[in-house]
Amino acid sequence: MEPVKKTEAPGYYQVIRFPMDLKTMSERLKSRYYTTRKLFMADMQRIFTNCREYNPPESEYYKCANLLEKFFYTKIKEAGLIEK
């Protein structure tokens, strides 16, 4: 939901070169940063990828990233924004 805090995830910013979070995406939406669907989708995908890169596969975070990614793409397809 928000940028990762260094105190909560030691070494995160050494592992993750391009952090992304939903708060930043919300701010980008408000400022009209997303001029294409591709930009929006890339940031969303970065959240999932970063989560899986930093956290071990057996962690709740990793599993939640997989679930959220699946949900996201299901909704995007249902809305007709990408091909099924």
UniProtKB/TrEMBL annotation:
GO function term, MF aspect, one: histone H3 acetyltransferase activity
InterPro entries assigned: Bromodomain (IPR001487), Bromodomain-like_sf (IPR036427), GCN5 (IPR037800)
Any Pfam family matching the protein: Bromodomain
A GO CC annotation given for this chain: ATAC complex
Coiled coil: none
Biological process, per Gene Ontology: positive regulation of transcription by RNA polymerase II
Keywords: Bromodomain
PROSITE patterns on file: BROMODOMAIN_2
Residues of the Bromo domain: 1-62
Protein name: Bromo domain-containing protein
